[in-house]
Amino acid sequence: MCETKIKTKRRFLLLATLIVSMACVLLAAEEETQKAASQEVNGTIKEVSINVRRLTIVLSERQEKIVSVEPETKIIINSREATIEELQSGQPVRLVLPPDSSKAILIEVK
Questions:
Q1: Selection from 68, 71, 72 nearest residue 54 by Cα
Q2: Rounded CA gap, 2 and 106, in Å?
Protein backbone atom coordinates (compact mmCIF):
# COMPACT_ATOMS: atom_id res chain seq x y z
CA MET A 1 0.00 0.00 0.00
CA CYS A 2 2.83 2.40 0.83
CA GLU A 3 4.42 1.69 -2.55
CA THR A 4 1.16 2.60 -4.31
CA LYS A 5 1.05 5.97 -2.53
CA ILE A 6 4.64 6.70 -3.57
CA LYS A 7 3.84 5.87 -7.22
CA THR A 8 0.73 8.07 -7.08
CA LYS A 9 2.72 10.97 -5.61
CA ARG A 10 5.41 10.57 -8.28
CA ARG A 11 2.80 10.64 -11.05
CA PHE A 12 1.18 13.70 -9.51
CA LEU A 13 4.51 15.52 -9.27
CA LEU A 14 5.41 14.58 -12.83
CA LEU A 15 2.04 15.80 -14.10
CA ALA A 16 2.29 19.04 -12.09
CA THR A 17 5.80 19.67 -13.45
CA LEU A 18 4.58 19.07 -16.99
CA ILE A 19 1.66 21.48 -16.57
CA VAL A 20 3.88 24.22 -15.12
CA SER A 21 6.42 23.75 -17.92
CA MET A 22 3.72 24.04 -20.58
CA ALA A 23 2.31 27.17 -18.94
CA CYS A 24 5.76 28.78 -18.94
CA VAL A 25 6.25 28.01 -22.63
CA LEU A 26 2.84 29.44 -23.51
CA LEU A 27 3.45 32.63 -21.51
CA ALA A 28 6.85 33.15 -23.15
CA ALA A 29 5.33 32.66 -26.60
CA GLU A 30 2.54 35.13 -25.85
CA GLU A 31 5.05 37.72 -24.61
CA GLU A 32 7.13 37.33 -27.78
CA THR A 33 4.02 37.77 -29.92
CA GLN A 34 3.12 40.97 -28.08
CA LYS A 35 6.66 42.32 -28.48
CA ALA A 36 6.65 41.54 -32.20
CA ALA A 37 3.26 43.18 -32.62
CA SER A 38 4.24 46.45 -30.92
CA GLN A 39 5.83 49.47 -32.57
CA GLU A 40 8.66 51.59 -31.22
CA VAL A 41 8.76 55.36 -31.71
CA ASN A 42 11.55 57.78 -30.78
CA GLY A 43 11.09 61.51 -30.41
CA THR A 44 11.05 64.49 -28.07
CA ILE A 45 8.25 65.53 -25.75
CA LYS A 46 6.67 68.76 -26.98
CA GLU A 47 3.79 68.97 -24.51
CA VAL A 48 2.57 67.08 -21.43
CA SER A 49 -1.18 67.35 -20.76
CA ILE A 50 -1.52 65.85 -17.29
CA ASN A 51 -5.29 66.40 -16.90
CA VAL A 52 -6.15 64.43 -20.04
CA ARG A 53 -3.11 62.12 -19.72
CA ARG A 54 -1.74 62.90 -23.16
CA LEU A 55 1.69 63.65 -24.65
CA THR A 56 2.56 65.41 -27.87
CA ILE A 57 5.76 63.95 -29.29
CA VAL A 58 7.87 65.53 -32.03
CA LEU A 59 9.08 62.73 -34.29
CA SER A 60 10.82 64.88 -36.90
CA GLU A 61 10.76 68.49 -38.07
CA ARG A 62 7.31 68.19 -39.59
CA GLN A 63 5.78 65.25 -37.80
CA GLU A 64 4.10 65.04 -34.39
CA LYS A 65 2.29 62.22 -32.63
CA ILE A 66 -0.26 62.53 -29.84
CA VAL A 67 0.03 59.66 -27.38
CA SER A 68 -2.41 58.61 -24.67
CA VAL A 69 -0.87 57.77 -21.29
CA GLU A 70 -3.05 55.07 -19.74
CA PRO A 71 -3.01 54.18 -16.02
CA GLU A 72 -1.20 50.94 -16.93
CA THR A 73 1.43 52.73 -19.08
CA LYS A 74 4.90 52.11 -17.68
CA ILE A 75 6.99 55.30 -17.45
CA ILE A 76 10.75 55.00 -16.90
CA ILE A 77 13.09 57.89 -16.06
CA ASN A 78 16.73 57.22 -15.11
CA SER A 79 16.06 53.47 -14.90
CA ARG A 80 13.26 53.87 -12.33
CA GLU A 81 9.49 53.90 -12.57
CA ALA A 82 8.01 57.40 -12.74
CA THR A 83 4.68 59.18 -13.18
CA ILE A 84 3.26 61.37 -15.92
CA GLU A 85 3.81 64.39 -13.65
CA GLU A 86 7.57 63.83 -13.92
CA LEU A 87 7.60 64.07 -17.72
CA GLN A 88 8.69 67.42 -19.18
CA SER A 89 8.77 69.02 -22.59
CA GLY A 90 12.15 68.72 -24.25
CA GLN A 91 12.89 65.24 -22.91
CA PRO A 92 13.95 62.68 -25.54
CA VAL A 93 11.80 59.56 -25.26
CA ARG A 94 11.35 56.06 -26.60
CA LEU A 95 7.74 54.90 -26.81
CA VAL A 96 6.35 51.41 -27.25
CA LEU A 97 2.83 51.36 -28.72
CA PRO A 98 0.47 48.60 -29.80
CA PRO A 99 0.02 48.40 -33.57
CA ASP A 100 -2.46 50.94 -34.93
CA SER A 101 -2.91 52.58 -31.52
CA SER A 102 -1.78 55.73 -29.77
CA LYS A 103 -2.06 54.24 -26.27
CA ALA A 104 1.45 53.97 -24.88
CA ILE A 105 2.59 50.70 -23.32
CA LEU A 106 5.97 52.15 -22.32
CA ILE A 107 7.44 55.65 -22.18
CA GLU A 108 11.17 55.71 -21.49
CA VAL A 109 13.08 58.97 -21.10
CA LYS A 110 16.48 58.53 -22.76
A1: 68
A2: 55
